[in-house]
Structures are given as C-alpha cells and as structure tokens.
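step=predict obj=Mitochondrial uncoupling protein n=303
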Amino acid sequence: MADLKPNTEISFAGTFASSAFAACFAELCTIPLDTAKVRLQLQKKSNVVEEGTVVPKYQGMLGTVATIAREEGLMALWKGVVPGLHRQFLYGGLRIGLYEPVKVFFVGTEYLGDVSLFQKILAAMITGALAIAVANPTDLVKVRLQAEGNLLPGVTRRYSGALNAYYSIMKQEGLAALWTGLGPNIARNAIINAAELASYDQVKQTILKIPGFTDTVLTHLLAGLGAGFFAVCIGSPVDVVKSRMMGDSIYKSTFDCFIRTLKTEGPFAFYKGFLPNFGRLVIWNVIMFLTLEQAKKFFVTSD
C-alpha cells in the first residue's frame, strides 16, 4: 500500500500471503461478534414472551453473545469459523493483493506523488468485487452455519460442518447455489473494501504529513480505526440484505429482499446488528491492518 518506501518492493505473492494471514488472524479474533451480527440481521420479528410482552430473542451485541453462549455453548460463537477462514484466505488475500496493481494501472508505473482519493476508491471497489466473486461460496457456507441456533428435539442440523455444507449445497441446490447472494455480496464488499482500503490509505497518508508522525504502530492503529468506522457506516444496509439472502431462500432477488425488508420492518431494519457490526469491523480492521503492516516486512525486498 502507500506505506512502502520507494527503494523497497513486495511481490504479489508476498502481498497475498501477508494479507491472507492478517485477515485470517483478525477473523479468528472477531468471529463471535460476526456470529452475533448475523443472528441480529436474520431476526425478523419478536419471538420471546416476557411478562405478557413479546420481545426480540436477541438484543444488542453483548446480549446476543450472552444468549448464544448460554443456550448453545461458548463454542457456538465460533460457528462458521472454518469457512470464515476459507473466505479470508481467498478474499482477504485477493482484495489487498490486487489493490496496488490496480492503483498502478490507473496512474501508470512512472507516476510519482499521491494517488487521488477517487482512484483509491475505484481501485478498492474493483478488487473487492473481483475477490468476493471468487470467495462467495465460502461466505454462503459461513452464514448458513452461523444462522443455525438451537434445534428442536429430533431435528437434525442441515450441515455437519463446512465441507459437508459445500457438498450438500451443490448436491441439493446445484453448483450455482454456492453463488447465492452474489449481487448484494459484490455490492457490499465493493463498498466496504473501498471504505476500508481507500480510507486506510487516505487516513494514513494524511497522518504521515503531520509533523511528528512516522510510519509506526500508532499511525497504523489510527488509520485502522478510521477504516473500520467508514466501513460499517457505509456498508451496513447491503450487509443486512446479503446476510438475509444467504440465510433464507425465500427471497427471489436482491431487489425482492430489499423491498420485503423495507415494507415489513422499515428502513431501520437495514441497520440491524449495527453495534456488533461496528464493534467487529473496527476491531477487525485494527487487528488486520496492524498484523498486515508487520507481516509485510517479511516479504519486502530492497531494490
């Protein structure tokens, strides 16, 4: 990214490897919050009665985490971790690995100076869309596994694990079913990738121009916080639509899911799970970018 010095370079393979590692590490640390986010997003109506009043089963980030842990066990918070790691290896490696080459394509190999914010956003949107087009099956399986809660006695789970889920979906629904929700997923990840990578790049570039700031962990931390904030504010509505389409087969299309959700639950439904999503993305980005900056040092070579 923009932090590499002129006399150093890093190969695509090196960027992919360091990005994939950083993304997988961040996923391991934050997937309980992601599981809580998915449950909140898929919750369509109140379904628990307390003292004559119907209230939602899942309430708030910490409340949802506590409910899942209490009813299903602590490890239920890591449901979907295997396809989650599959996803981060492919998606995380590709979206960041391709970001610099796409930026260079726009400005040219001989360009010196700061890349414009527009070009950064465009490059990040393209790489986010390309990466998730490859990784969509892993995202689908992750959401399906995370969506399963406690089942009634005698009812078996749809999938015994990640590999079984891939196989079952292909066998029962067809190969194309693995790309269910691709439309909103491309929209979501193009937007969020632009918010994350372009904002991280821009915030870091701005901070480094402030006297006293250098390319240190503090700079990476501040830039990561900015990236997470922009990502969750911009990407939450498409994230809700993506989770619902992947978690429930009743929707005919992205537009159908959007309209049904809007009509039955109102505009605020698109920000369901906002707090766990905010908490997860901010923490995820800080962990991922801090890890990435350190991991890249192992692959940087001097000219």
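step=describe
Residues 8-298 form a domain with the Mitochondrial carrier fold fold (CATH 1.50.40.10).
step=end
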